[in-house]
Amino acid sequence: MKPETCAKIFSQRETVKGHFLMIVKAPVSFREAIPGQFIMVRLEGGNSPFLSRPFSIYSIYSRGDDTFVEIFYKVVGKGTDAFSRLREGASLDILGPLGRGFDVPASCRKVALVAGGIGVAPLSFLAQRCGEDIPGTEVICYLGAGSSEALAGLDRLEKICSTVEISTDDGSRGYHGSVTGLLKRDMDLYADDDTRIYSCGPRPMLRGLQELLKGRPPGTCQVSLEERMACGIGACLGCVARIRSDGEKGGMVRVCKEGPVFDIDRVEFGE
């Protein structure tokens, strides 16, 4: 098991209402992180909140000998509210990188990202790495939110993606409707063997995407599941999900250990 390590907050700011970008100075080992992996974070010394919180990795970069991890998150409870109040120089205990990340074949020439809400975080890291590691790959992002005011991470996506398509539930910007409805309009663009789809967001969105992709070959789409986690290493069994294996009835797996990334055709989302 990887030990927790101490990290310092380099900076933190609110970007969109209720959404914060925290930059943490971390050990050099974090440079090996794969898009889709995550970290567990808590206040140094185990102060409230006592349990660690899982955060997707938004980006990793280096300046000289220093390594920085970006965490983009939404305040949804007491734990994330406490993190949002921290300032430069505050100490954190972090564990990671953890879990299974996204797999992008070297032959991939077109990538479609489908992001709902804060699901934009791991997909932005993926878009960044695709641009760095697979030159010439076209990266198109479909970003959905309830309203234009809730569109999080848009500025970053516009810098690192070839195209960004927007949907809002209330029609205040872009396509009026769900992000899967927006993708459905363009599905003919993603029929080739050198195309892959990656997604992260609320379960109803992922369920809709799974329905949309029925009949596509296995491996066409990978999704990152957003589950509550307490330990991040598979010990507490608090983040289980039902995953099918080779077409058989699904069994329970630990999202933090066997995931959080899975082939979408193997996930049983339920009703």
Describe the structure.
By secondary structure, the protein is α/β, with parallel strands linked by helices. It has a domain at 5-98: Elongation Factor Tu (Ef-tu), domain 3, CATH 2.40.30.10. 18% of the residues lie in helices and 35% in strands. The chain has six helices and 16 strands. The chain has helices at residues 78-84, 120-133, 154-160, 179-185, 203-212, 255-258, and strands at 5-14, 19-26, 38-43, 53-56, 59-63, 66-74, 91-98, 110-116, 138-145, 163-168, 175-176, 195-200, 221-224, 240-243, 251-254, 261-263. The strands form three sheets. It has a seven-stranded antiparallel beta sheet. Strands 11-10-9-8-12-13-16 form a seven-stranded mixed beta sheet, sandwiched between helices. A two-stranded antiparallel ribbon has the order 14-15. α5 (203-212) links the parallel β12 (195-200) and β13 (221-224). It is globular and about 50 Å long. The mean pLDDT is 90.
CATH topology of the domain at 5-98: Elongation Factor Tu (Ef-tu), domain 3
Sequence stretches where pLDDT stays below 50 over 5 or more residues: none
- Tell me the strand order in the biggest sheet: 4-3-7-1-2-6-5
| SSE pattern, N- to C-terminal | EEEEEEHEEHEHEEHEHEEEHE
Query: What's the gyration radius in Å?
Result: 18 Å
* Strand-pairing-aware structural class: alpha/beta
* CATH architectural category of the domain at 5-98: Beta Barrel
List the helices and strands and how they pair.
Elements: E1 5-14, E2 19-26, E3 38-43, E4 53-56, E5 59-63, E6 66-74, H1 78-84, E7 91-98, E8 110-116, H2 120-133, E9 138-145, H3 154-160, E10 163-168, E11 175-176, H4 179-185, E12 195-200, H5 203-212, E13 221-224, E14 240-243, E15 251-254, H6 255-258, E16 261-263
Parallel strand pairs: 8-9, 8-12, 9-10, 10-11, 12-13
Antiparallel strand pairs: 1-2, 1-7, 2-6, 3-4, 3-7, 5-6, 13-16, 14-15
